[in-house]
Amino acid sequence: MKKIGVFTSGGDAPGMNAAVRAVVRTCIYNNIVPFGIFEGYKGLIEGDIKELSSRDVSNIIQRGGTILRSARCKEFHEKEGRQKAFDNIQKFNLDGIVAIGGDGTFTGAKIFNEEHNIPFIGIPGTIDNDLFGTDYCIGYDTALNTVIEAVDKIRDTASSHNRLFMVEVMGRDAGFIALRSGIGVGAEAILVPETPTLIEKLLEKLRNDRTQHKQSMIVIVAEGDETGGALKIAELVKNLCPEFDTKVTILGHIQRGGSPSALDRVLASRLGNAAVNALLEGKTNIMVGVLHRDVSYTPFEKAIKHHQKLNKDLLNLAEVLSYN
Ligand code: ATP
Fold first, then answer.
1. Fold adopted by 3-139+260-305
2. What is the rounded distance in angstroms from the CA atom of residue 204 to the CA atom of residue 16?
3. Is the pLDDT of residue 306 over 80?
4. What are the pLDDT digits (tens) for 257-271?
5. Rounded to the nearest 5°, which phi and psi values hold at 304?
6. Residue 307: exposure state from Cβ atoms within 10 A (0-12, 13-18, ≥19)
7. Where are the CATH 3.40.50.450 domain residues in the chain?
8. Is 141 a catalytic residue?
């Protein structure tokens, strides 16, 4: 390995910069020349590729977003697009690629690898934390902290006015952010796509909370909950329980930004380093992750196919702790 390319792809996540820095510095430490590929697969197709020095990644460990920028690239879905990407890999003499992103990014890498034999290592970077083969994805912990900070503030105002708040958090297909942040803020209820939402049961719980003199009620709703988002659920609640003063907050994209937490910075640093080491050991087509505190290696195929499951103990915990 003499030259390694690194890119960030799909949805951005806080801590991606820390991972890029770790890839670059580990390369330099091992006498490998690191190259930044800008805007994910788009940059690979367009040849937007530049050598990175150690100074290029100074002062970025604490920055959210990604200095390499990110993109969703339709052209990479086509064989011709992937051929252009391969031509550029050859043009820049890249011996291996580190891809930081989510399951879409790894699906693209897997397909690319079947056509062109270039070693690819993935680093899980997605606030959704839904990838199989790692306990945590880069960005998840920071997103959780952002949600908790915001909902604590909502709790203050909700308590002052005896209000019920429906707070929508990110998670189109997965309830990881909703579940952990819900436990962290002491939510009265948590609605996730993985379990059926029974409106009658929810209303019974909220009415019961009210009789127990709760001054405020917070329901955390994952955006992908099958009943609909927070607006839809609030509408149902307003119709069926007009006695509640119901408000809605959709946290949206603030969950993607901000300075990464200590946990995300350390995780990203470990995984960036592990990805380069994996390439040096001749590994390919795998995602590096952390399982039970140790670095783990999961084939792309598995990481994509088997989605991580919500922890049942945490679901039970949320129910027990919000019980009157
Ligand atoms: P997040 O989980 O944050 O959304 P992601 O990596 O899953 O991140 P996607 O937009 O799904 O984000 O995928 C990123 C890019 O990977 C796509 O824009 C596309 O270029 C490439 N990609 C995804 N799926 C495929 C596929 N089936 N074939 C080829 N390329 C793909």
1. Rossmann fold (3.40.50)
2. 43
3. yes
4. 999 999 999 999 999
5. -80, -45
6. middle
7. 3-139+260-305
8. no
Q: How far apart are CA 18 and CA 220, in angstroms?
A: 30
Which tokens in the block code for residue 128? 């959704």
77 CA to middle of ligand 1, Å? 9
State the Cα–Cα distance between residues 99 and 122, nearest whole angstrom.
5
Ligand 1 pocket, mutate which of 72, 120, 132 (most atoms under 8 A from CB): 72
Average pLDDT, the chain: 96
Give the C-alpha separation, 264 to 74, whole Å.
Answer: 29
Distance CA 209, CA 217 (A): 8
Phi, psi of 224, rounded to the nearest 5 degrees: -90, 10
Strand-pairing partners, residue 6, are 36, 98
Chain center to CA of 1? 30
pLDDT digits (tens, 9 = 90+) for 151-184: 999 999 999 999 999 999 999 999 999 999 999 9
Active-site annotation holder among 56, 87, 95, 128: 128
The C-alpha atoms of residue 239 and residue 213 are separated, in whole angstroms, by 22
> What ligand 1 atom has the least distance to the C-alpha of 106?
6
The segment(s) of the chain belonging to CATH 3.40.50.460 are 141-256
161 within 8 A of 133, measured Cβ to Cβ: no
Sorted by sequence, the CB contacts under 8 Å of residue 80 that are 6+ apart come out as: none
CATH architecture under which domain 141-256 falls: 3-Layer(aba) Sandwich (3.40)
